[in-house]
Design goal:
Order of helices and strands: HHHHHHHEHEHH
Radius of gyration: 19 Å
Strand order of the largest sheet: 1-2
Distance between the termini: 33 Å
Largest sheet: 2 strands, antiparallel
Number of helices: 10
Structural class: mainly alpha
Helix content: 55-70%
Amino acid sequence: MSNLYKEITINGLWKQNTGVVQLLGLCPTLAVTTSAVNGLSLGFATALVMAAANGSVSPVRRFVPNEIRVPVFILVIAALVTVIDLSINGFAHSLHKVLGIFIPLIVVNCIVLARVESFAAKNSPVPSMLDGFMMGLGLTLVLGLLGAMREFVGKGTVLSGLDLVFSSMPKQLYTIPDYHGFLLAVLPPGAFLGLGTLIALRNWIEIRKAAKTSTPTPNLKPALSH
């Protein structure tokens, strides 16, 4: 059982990372990552929804007819997203205004439904919850790292917007003195360039690892998202 949990963790964080391998959920990945705080916040909300959705679907999977399983799964996901949306609005209203429509859009994020359909509908609750959370955590790391890159290059700040999550925190941890910014980084083209850099970095690490172990180079072609 421990090997199963280890495999689920590695798959979610690295081998099947939804952000840089499967390339799912590109809309929030490219739109929200203007700062690290925004990316981490939406990623963590998605991870919570994925863990809860997998944990909710797994126990009832045998009682849902195949003909209506997708509508039922979406209904469960929508209910959980509503809870997360209202919670963020209640406890971090300023952050809620920044993330805007992308919190409700978690309902139609193909990442969530894909894991419910491919894993939770076939496995027991505990591994399903772990799978959902780790897949979401892998996405969170990508969103946070991409947001940090774009924020630092584009605005010269580190973790700007911390006060949106924790009111007692400063607006940013660090600001480069006399930095006038690089507008391209915070615009949509900067998101594509940053994500491409992260994908290339992961592929380079995999190639180096394969070369050291004298094994064939793994298939690095990302799965197409729909």
